[in-house]
Amino acid sequence: MAALKKLASQTAIYGISHMAGRFLNYLLVPLYTNIFNPQEYGINTQLYAYVAFFNVLLTYGMETAFFRFASRHQQPGQVFTTAMISVFFSSAGFVLISSFFAPGIAAFVRLSEHPEYIQYFIWILALDAVAALPFAYLRHHHKAARFALLKNLNILTNILLNLYFLLLCPYLISTYGIQPPGYNPQVGIGYIFIANLTASAVTLLFFIPEFNAIRQGKFDAVLWRDMIRYAMPMMVVGFAGMINETLDRMLITWFYPDPAVGRAMNGIYGANYKLAILMTLFIQAFRYAAEPYFFAHASRSDKRDIYARVMNYFVAVCVFLFLAVTLFMDVFQHFIGAEFREGLHVVPVLLMANLFLGIYYNLSIWYKLSDQTGKGAIISIAGAAITVLLNVWWIPLFGYTGAAWATLVCYLCMTLICFFAGKHYYPIPYNSFRIVSYIVAGLALYWLMQQMKVSLSLSSSVWYGFSLGALALFALLVWGFESREKIVTSSD
């Protein structure tokens, strides 16, 4: 329990700050969806989908490799120096090559009229890749406060610049006739990308103390080769993972003959994807704390029991968040503009997909700890194949609804494959019955509440009262299971 409490405290430190910052960042979604129409917002959705792919490519698994090698190397600083120099030079090469081909890239993604968008993102990607290792360095040294401070500095800078470009400048022009220096109303949605680029640059400046740590070591070619061998399968895992997470938002635009209609549908889908905010924030905060935590406890004799217990709590929290969002959808729908709410029906599907993605993240620890990252790559490739097949099949038939279901089926399949492979190669005593019980109980409560909503004419206050009761009932179920296990464990 002491180990679990430590993980919980680390998750809380990362989580509270991360959730606060990301929630503020997500508040930009109502701003975007009320200023821009679905077609314009669809450009934002499409380009950030591509960004996710290149984020993985430019860090090529070095973050996970850093955690693995720093935890067992006699000179962790040498590991950081080697990884940092590698990522810096590869990012510089990316900027040089991509800038040359920027007009062609813009034409390929059907944005030939805006090649400047591609230039913005080339630099955003490079700066974020260089910052990835210092952020990993902070996590390895358990500097959660500084990690959270710099993450939120990035988010706050981005938010303030968005408010300046999208609200203050137009207000000054329309109300007082004041033209802010350098502001051009024709840039429009491009200011979202300019704000992001500026925030990335500002954040990188604050990593000067971490970059000074490079002076303590030198580039080790032998170590680098070992790290690359470990990291390359992780890059495949990450790249395949990005196919699973973002390919739908890339393909939706392509499956409509009229690019404008495709972008509009993509914008609606992307906005509703954001309504999984609570689940997404929790999973991300958990990952920040869990990855270094799992590696740090890899030498404990009871590590597998700890991993199993963590899974119970993780699933319970995710199902609770699923219910919180779906039962209070009447509230959450106001998070996006009215033009985008026709896509609300995909939110429960996407929430459940994210739940299985989170379970997969937990299960994947077996191939990371056992240095069998190649097997993890195979699982991810299988998931990517499922994603491609189902999206190509279902999007033409069902539009973005098909994309949502393809995401759920993909993550469910990956979870099952990873679970059964882990039982063979690195057995962890997960309580499968309890995990399934939590998921089934959550889905059953959701279904019953939806039936009640359709059958009965309830006022909003009464409906919210029933919804709170359903959440309390699920929490009571979890408490009953987990408290019983504590009693059994203590008696043993």
Keywords for this structure?
single chain; 492 residues; mainly alpha
In words, what does this structure look like?
With 492 residues, this protein is an all-alpha fold. The protein has one domain (2-491). It has helices at residues 2-26, 28-35, 38-59, 62-70, 76-100, 102-108, 115-140, 144-176, 190-205, 208-212, 221-254, 259-273, 277-296, 303-327, 329-332, 347-363, 365-369, 373-398, 400-425, 432-455, 460-491. Helix 1 packs parallel to helix 8, helix 3 packs across helix 7 (115-140) and helix 5 crosses helix 11. 42% of the residues are buried. Residues 487-492 have low confidence and may be disordered.
Report the order of strands and helices: HHHHHHHHHHHHHHHHHHHHH
Spans of at least 5 consecutive residues whose pLDDT stays below 50 are: 487-492
Task: Assign an overall shape.
Answer: globular
Q: Average pLDDT, to the nearest integer?
A: 86
How are the secondary structure elements laid out?
Elements: H1 2-26, H2 28-35, H3 38-59, H4 62-70, H5 76-100, H6 102-108, H7 115-140, H8 144-176, H9 190-205, H10 208-212, H11 221-254, H12 259-273, H13 277-296, H14 303-327, H15 329-332, H16 347-363, H17 365-369, H18 373-398, H19 400-425, H20 432-455, H21 460-491
Helix pairs in contact: 1-8, 1-13, 3-7, 3-11, 3-12, 4-5, 4-7, 4-11, 5-7, 5-11, 6-7, 7-9, 8-9, 11-12, 11-18, 11-19, 13-14, 13-16, 14-16, 14-20, 14-21, 16-19, 18-19, 20-21
Quick overview:
The protein has helices spanning 2-26, 28-35, 38-59, 62-70, 76-100, 102-108, 115-140, 144-176, 190-205, 208-212, 221-254, 259-273, 277-296, 303-327, 329-332, 347-363, 365-369, 373-398, 400-425, 432-455, 460-491. With 492 residues, the protein is an all-alpha fold.
